[in-house]
C-alpha cells in the first residue's frame, strides 16, 4: 500500500503551507497519481471483500446462531461458546495433535529443503542438477488423495516396506504401520517431506543464485574448503530468506488443513490424527452448530496472529531480522 | 516524514471511503435480493391459486413448457447421465421438466454439503436430503407440502392415503416436509439382500451346508480357506468387513443387532413395550456378538486390514474374488459384485443367510417398518413449487412409475398378451453390465424423485409396478446363484429368512429416518458417542481375547461418560411422540 511517489517533484513540497493549501495538495496529489491509485484500487477492494468483510461473521461466535433468522433476531450468549470449547477434553487433544504435527512439519520443512538446496547447489553437472530439481518438485503436484493411497499401500501388511524389512531381517513379522497410533505423526511428517521438499527448495535455490560469486572466489583464495564455503557464505547468504519464511510459517502453525490427516488416518489412530480443522468441521458445520465452529476458528485466528507477532518480535530482538 | 504521513492518511481515507461504498453497495444488493425474493414468492402464489381452479378438472392438464429444476441428492448416483438416457428423455418429453442434478460423492451422505447449504441459504429447487432434512427444516428452507399435495398431487394422495400421518414431520410440527421416496409403498420382500454373505463357490464345494448361526458361518469359512489358501495366486480372505467412515455401521455394528434378533433402529435399540431407547451396544447379547468378531480376528479369519483400509480398497478386494464371506447389505458391495459378474466370475458372487448369534434369535431384517423412508423435498428457492409437485406427482402416476421402473416400451420391455416382458438381451445387459445399462437407459436412476409402490403391488393392468417379482427375480439370478439356491431347496434367498408375515409392523417406523433436534446438547453428545464407537469398536475387535471384557466395559463406560444416558432420555421422548403421531396411541 505504501506506494512510492511516481514523480520525484511531489516530494519537494514544503511543509509550511496553510491548511487550505494542504488540502489542495492532498487532492492534487491524488489527481497526479490517479493511475497509481486506480491500479491499486482493485486489490484494496479484493482484500476488503475477501479478508475483512468475513470478519463480520465472528459475531456468530457470541450468538446462538440459527440460519433462518436475521441478525437482529439472533440470541446473544456472550462467551458461552468459548466456555464450552475450553471445557472440552477433546479440544485439547486435537490442539495437541495440530501443534505436534505442524511443529514437526515446520522443523522438517526447513531442514530438508535447505539441506537439499545447498547440496544441489554444490553439484556441478548442470543437466543432472536440472533433472533432479524437476523430479524432486513433481510430487508437489500430486494430490493428497493419491499420496495417501500410495503411502497406505506401501505401508500395508503386504506392502513394499514390509517386504523390505522382512527381507533384510530387520523384523520377523510384517508391521501394520497404519494401525499404530504413535507412528501417525511420523507417517504424516514423512509423507509431507516426500511431497514438499523439492518444491520448498526452489526458493532457497533461487536465493543461493543471488549470492555474489566473488565471495566464493575470495573464500577459495583464502583456502576455505567446500564445507567452510557452505557454512560461511551460502547459509548466511540465504539467512534472511530463511527467517522470513520461518516467521510466516509460524503464523500458519494452527491452520494446517485436515486433508492429510483425514486421508491417512483411520479409526484406530483417531486419538492422534484428529486436528483442529477437522474438529471444527465435525462439531461446527456437520451438526449445524455454526456458532461453535466460528468460536473454534476465531480461537485459531487469534492464536495465529499472536504467534506471528511473537515470532516476529523475538527475531527482531535477537536476530535483527523481521518481516514487519 | 511530514509528506509521508499525509500520504498514508490520504490512502487510508481512500481505503475507508471505498470500504464504505462497498458496504453500502452490499446493503443495496441485499435489499434488492430480498425484494426480488418476495417478488417472486408473491408472483408464485397468484399463479398457484390461478392454476388451482384449473387443476380441479384434471391433473393431466399440467403445464409442459420447458422448465429446469436444480436438485441435490444426498446419496451418490454414479450412473447419472444428465437425463440423456431413454427414461430421462421420456420424462422431459412428458412433463417439460429437466433436472439439473448434483449428487454427493462416494459415501458422503450429504452431511457437510447440506450443512453448508443451510448456513449459506443457497438451496437447490428440489432436494433429497436423507438424514439431514432436519437441518434444512430448522433453517426454514423447506416448504410445507400439505396443501400442494392436496391440490396438485392426486396420485401421491391416493398412494399415501392410509399413511398421511406418517408423512408428518413430528408431533409438534405436523407439516409435510418430505414425500417418502427411498422405499416402496406396501412393499413386499421377494428377495433378501442382507444378512451374512458367503461366496457361491464355497457353498458348492462344501455341499450346501446349513448356515444358521455364527458358529456355522465360521466353520464354513474356516473349512474352505484351509482347502484353498490362495485364489488366483493371491491369499484368500475368509471374512472382510468395511471399517471406513459410516460404512462401519452397515458391516460391523448393525450386524450386532441383526444377529441378535433386534430390528434396525439406527444406533438405538427400542424396547417394544416401554419404548425406552438405548444405544444398542449396551445390550448384553451384542457384547457376545462383538466377542465373536474378536474371536474371528484372533483366529486370523477376519482380514487384518479391516480398520486401516478405505472403502475403495475394500471394494477392490471383493472385486478380486478372493473374499469368501461378508457381513453386509447387497447395495453396500453391489458395485464390486457387479464387476465380478461382468468378469464372468459368477461363482465368486454371494448368497445371503439369516445368520444369528445362536438359534434363540430370529433375523428381523425383513420386518416391515411401514411407510417411513427418507424422501424428496421442495425448498423455498424453488420458483415454481406447483410445477415441481406436479412433476413429482406425474412420476407417481401409473405411467410415470412404469417408465421409471421398467423403462420405455418397445426398448426396455414389450407387452406380450397384456403382460410386460423384459426381452432376454435387455435382461442380460441389466444383470451383467448394470452400470452401463443404467447410464444408457436410465432405469433405476429416477426412483428417488417420486413416491412409488413397492415390489409385489400390481397396477390396473394386473402387472407389477416394479421389476422385482418372483419370476423376474429368479430370472435375474445367474446360473451359479440358481444352482446354489437349488442346493438349499429354495427359489430365492428370501425363502431362507424369517418371513415378514411373522413379524409385526413396527409402530415407530424406522428410527434412522427420525429427525432429531439440531440445537441443544443432543447433537453434540451424539457426535461424541459416535466418535467413541468409531474408535472403540476397532479396539474391542482387535483386543487380545483375555482383554475383551475389559475393553468392552471401558467402551460402554466411555459412552456414558460422554452423556449417553441423557441423550437416550431425549431420544426416548422423541420415540414416544412418534408412536403417538403414527398410531394415535396415548403413550406415557
Provide an overview of this structure.
- The complex is a heterodimer of chains A (about 325) and B (about 600).
- Chain A is an all-alpha fold.
- Chain A has two domains: about 40 residues, no CATH class; about 240 residues, MetI-like fold.
- Chain A contains 15 helices and two strands.
- In chain A, strands 1-2 form a two-stranded antiparallel sheet.
- In chain A, helix 14 runs antiparallel to helix 15.
- Chain A starts with 18 loop residues before the first helix and ends in a 6-residue tail after the last helix.
- Chain B has about 600 residues and is of the alpha/beta class.
- Chain B has two domains: about 240 residues, D-Maltodextrin-Binding Protein, domain 2 (3-Layer(aba) Sandwich), CATH 3.40.190; about 210 residues, Periplasmic binding protein-like II (D-Maltodextrin-Binding Protein, domain 2), CATH 3.40.190.
- Chain B has 22 helices and 17 strands.
- In chain B, the strands form six sheets. Chain B has a five-stranded mixed β-sheet with strand order 2-1-3-14-4. In chain B, strands 9-12-6-13 form a four-stranded mixed β-sheet, sandwiched between helices.
- In chain B, a hairpin with a 6-residue loop joins strand 10 and strand 11.
- The longest helix of chain B has about 55 residues.
- The radius of gyration of chain B is 27 Å and the shape is globular.
- In chain B, about 45% of the residues are buried.
- At the A-B interface, helix 1, helix 2 and helix 14 of A face helix 1, helix 3 and helix 20 of B.
Amino acid at each position: 500500500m505504501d506506494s512510492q511517489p511516481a514523480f520525484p517533484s511531489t516530494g519537494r513540497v514544503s511543509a509550511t503551507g496553510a491548511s487550505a493549501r494542504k488540502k489542495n495538495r492532498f487532492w492534487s496529489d491524488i489527481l497526479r497519481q490517479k493511475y497509481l491509485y486506480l491500479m491499486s484500487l482493485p486489490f484494496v477492494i479484493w482484500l476488503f471483500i475477501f479478508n475483512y468483510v468475513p470478519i463480520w461473521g465472528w459475531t456468530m461466535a457470541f450468538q446462538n446462531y440459527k440460519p433462518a433468522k436475521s441478525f437482529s433476531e439472533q440470541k446473544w450468549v456472550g462467551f458461552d461458546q468459548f466456555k464450552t470449547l475450553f471445557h472440552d477434553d477433546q479440544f485439547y487433544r486435537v490442539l495437541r495433535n495440530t501443534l505436534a504435527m505442524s511443529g514437526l512439519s515446520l522443523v522438517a520443512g526447513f531442514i530438508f529443503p535447505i539441506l537439499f538446496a545447498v547440496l544441489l547447489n554444490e553439484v556441478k553437472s548442470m543437466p543432472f542438477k536440472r533433472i533432479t530439481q524437476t523430479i524432486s518438485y513433481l510430487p508437489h503436484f500430486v494430490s493428497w488423495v493419491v499420496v495417501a493411497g500410495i503411502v497406505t499401500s506401501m505401508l500395508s501388511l503386504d506392502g513394499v516396506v514390509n517386504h523390505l524389512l522382512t527381507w533384510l531381517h530387520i523384523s520377523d513379522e510384517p508391521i501394520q504401520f497404519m494401525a499404530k497410533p504413535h507412528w501417525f505423526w511420523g507417517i504424516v511428517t514423512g509423507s509431507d517431506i516426500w511431497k514438499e521438499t523439492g518444491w520448498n527448495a526452489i526458493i532457497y535455490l533461487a536465493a543461493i543464485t543471488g549470492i555474489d560469486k566473488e565471495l566464493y572466489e575470495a573464500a577459495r583464495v583464502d583456502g576455505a574448503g567446500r564445507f567452510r564455503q557452505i557454512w560461511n557464505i551460502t547459509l548466511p547468504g540465504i539467512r534472511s530468506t530463511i527467517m522470513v519464511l520461518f516467521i510466516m510459517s509460524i503464523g500458519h502453525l494452527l491452520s494446517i488443513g485436515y486433508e492429510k490427516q483425514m486421508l491417512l488416518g483411520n479409526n484406530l489412530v483417531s486419538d492422534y490424527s484428529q486436528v483442529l480443522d477437522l474438529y471444527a468441521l465435525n462439531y461446527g458445520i456437520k451438526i449445524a452448530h455454526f456458532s461453535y465452529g466460528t468460536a473454534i476458528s476465531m480461537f485459531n485466528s487469534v492464536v495465529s496472529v499472536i504467534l506471528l507477532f511473537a515470532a516476529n518480535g523475538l527475531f527482531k530482538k535477537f536476530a535483527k531480522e523481521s518481516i514487519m | 516524514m511530514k509528506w509521508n504521513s499525509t500520504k498514508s492518511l490520504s490512502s487510508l481515507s481512500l481505503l475507508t471511503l471505498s470500504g464504505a461504498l462497498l458496504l453500502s453497495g452490499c446493503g443495496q444488493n441485499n435489499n434488492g435480493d430480498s425484494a426480488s425474493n418476495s417478488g417472486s414468492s408473491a408472483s408464485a402464489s397468484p399463479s398457484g391459486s390461478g392454476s388451482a381452479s384449473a387443476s380441479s378438472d384434471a391433473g393431466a392438464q399440467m403445464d409442459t413448457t420447458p422448465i429446469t429444476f436444480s436438485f441435490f441428492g444426498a446419496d451418490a448416483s454414479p450412473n447419472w447421465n444428465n437425463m440423456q438416457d431413454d427414461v430421462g428423455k421420456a420424462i422431459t418429453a412428458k412433463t417439460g421438466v429437466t433436472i439439473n442434478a448434483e449428487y454427493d460423492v462416494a459415501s458422503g451422505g450429504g452431511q457437510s454439503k447440506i450443512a453448508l447449504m443451510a448456513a449459506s441459504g443457497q438451496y437447490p429447487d428440489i432436494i433429497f436430503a436423507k438424514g439431514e432434512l432436519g437441518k434444512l427444516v430448522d433453517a426454514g428452507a423447506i416448504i410445507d407440502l400439505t396443501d400442494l399435495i392436496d391440490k396438485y398431487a392426486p396420485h401421491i394422495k391416493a398412494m399415501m392415503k392410509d399413511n398421511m400421518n406418517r408423512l408428518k414431520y413430528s408431533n409438534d410440527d405436523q407439516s409435510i416436509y418430505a414425500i417418502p421416496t427411498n422405499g416402496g409403498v406396501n412393499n413386499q420382500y421377494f428377495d433378501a439382500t442382507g444378512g451374512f454373505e458367503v461366496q457361491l463357490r464355497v457353498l458348492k464345494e462344501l455341499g450346501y451346508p446349513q448356515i444358521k448361526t455364527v458358529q456355522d458361518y465360521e466353520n464354513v469359512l474356516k473349512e474352505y480357506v484351509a482347502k484353498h489358501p490362495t485364489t488366483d495366486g493371491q491369499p484368500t480372505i475368509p471374512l472382510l468387513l468395511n471399517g471406513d467412515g459410516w460404512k462401519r455401521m452397515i458391516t460391523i455394528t448393525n450386524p450386532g443387532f441383526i444377529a441378535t434378533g433386534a430390528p434396525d433402529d439406527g444406533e438405538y435399540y427400542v424396547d417394544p413395550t416401554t419404548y425406552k431407547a438405548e444405544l444398542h451396544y449396551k445390550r448384553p447379547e451384542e457384547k457376545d456378538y462383538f466377542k465373536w468378531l474378536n474371536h474371528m480376528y484372533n483366529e486370523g479369519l477376519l482380514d487384518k486390514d479391516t480398520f486401516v483400509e478405505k472403502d475403495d480398497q475394500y471394494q477392490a478386494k471383493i472385486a478380486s474374488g478372493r473374499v469368501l464371506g461378508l457381513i453386509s447389505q447387497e447395495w453396500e458391495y453391489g458395485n464390486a459384485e457387479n464387476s465380478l459378474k461382468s468378469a464372468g466370475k459368477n461363482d465368486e458372487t454371494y448368497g445371503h443367510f439369516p445368520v444369528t448369534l445362536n438359534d434363540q434369535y430370529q433375523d428381523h431384517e425383513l420386518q416391515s417398518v411401514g411407510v417411513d423412508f427418507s424422501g424428496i423435498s421442495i425448498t423455498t428457492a424453488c420458483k415454481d413449487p406447483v410445477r415441481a409437485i406436479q412433476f413429482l406427482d406425474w412420476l407417481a402416476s401409473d405411467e410415470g412409475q412404469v417408465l421409471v421402473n421398467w423403462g420405455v416400451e418397445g426398448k426396455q420391455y414389450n407387452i406380450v398378451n397384456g403382460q410386460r416382458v423384459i426381452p432376454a438381451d435387455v435382461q442380460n445387459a441389466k444383470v451383467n453390465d448394470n452400470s452401463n445399462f443404467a447410464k444408457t437407459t436410465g432405469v433405476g436412476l429416477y426412483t428417488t424423485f417420486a413416491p412409488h409402490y413397492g415390489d409385489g403391488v400390481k397396477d390396473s393392468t394386473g402387472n407389477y409396478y416394479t421389476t422385482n417379482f418372483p419370476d423376474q427375480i429368479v430370472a435375474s439370478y445367474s446360473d451359479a446363484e440358481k444352482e446354489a439356491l437349488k442346493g438349499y431347496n429354495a427359489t430365492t434367498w428370501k425363502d431362507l429368512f424369517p418371513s415378514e408375515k411373522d413379524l409385526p409392523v413396527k409402530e415407530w417406523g424406522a428410527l434412522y429416518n427420525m429427525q432429531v433436534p439440531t440445537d441443544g446438547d443432543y447433537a453434540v453428545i451424539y457426535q461424541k458417542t459416535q466418535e467413541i464407537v468409531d474408535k472403540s469398536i476397532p479396539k474391542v475387535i482387535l483386543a487380545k481375547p483375555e482383554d475383551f471384557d475389559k475393553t468392552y466395559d471401558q467402551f460402554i463406560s466411555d459412552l456414558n461418560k460422554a452423556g449417553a444416558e441423557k441423550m437416550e432420555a431425549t431420544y426416548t421422548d422423541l420415540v414416544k411422540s412418534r408412536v403417538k403421531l403414527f398410531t394415535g396411541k396415548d403413550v406415557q
